Hints:
This protein is an all-alpha fold and 259 residues long. It has one domain. The protein is built from ten helices and no strands. The longest helix has 32 residues. The chain is flat.
Amino acid sequence: MNTKQQSVSDGVEESMTLTEHLGELRTRIIRSALAVTVGMVVIIAFYDQVLGFLLQPYVDLCAQEGPEFCDPDLIFTSPTDGLSTRIRVGMYGGIIAALPVILWQVWRFVVPALHAKEKKYAIPFVLSSVLLFVAGGVLAYITVGRALQFLIGWAGEDPTALFTVNSYISLIGLMIFAFGVGFLLPVLLVFLQLVNVVTPRRLLASWRYATIGVFVLAAVITPSGDPITLMMLALPMLLLYFVAVLIGWVVLRKRPETA
């Protein structure tokens, strides 16, 4: 017989054809894109305030080190830089603002792979993901000043740093996303444990390889490439790795045995 179990909330069938899966994926992507668009509009409406907030670490660094170290007045080098910067700020901010919606859509797409009792983790999944991403973003915001200080220092005593707004926004935006995505590692690991791809015992036994992998990943995704940023991202990620193993162990202990 061809029976199909219904998912808990959206009426999406757990047993679906490839075409149905692709249709479901398309729906989730469209909803996420609409949320990002709304977020972009809101962020661009408050562009001056958001830009000032993003520039503050650099301004503070220049005030601390003096005008001979860096010029706090960022520049444009093209007539289109103003527009491109506004769009870039809106895009970064829009994605972050829409993150709860994006994560909810991700959850609704993968939930058919979970046991019935594990579907109750929807809110913890979204909430923990948002909080971890924000925590990573905050750490990146705090770290960017030290990263710039380290990188500018390599120029020597005579040159004075002078950046374009676009280059700075690209750097801090990518750092925020790199740290935010890096901090989502435990969410991914817990999910992989829930769907039986890996076990807590296997993850714990592989901690040496995980340590190497975390440092390599941190080196790849950090845009500045300096050791300060690398350590500031890798060490929390490594800690979160073990937290994910612990959470997976606790959750799986409560899972009923299935025949």
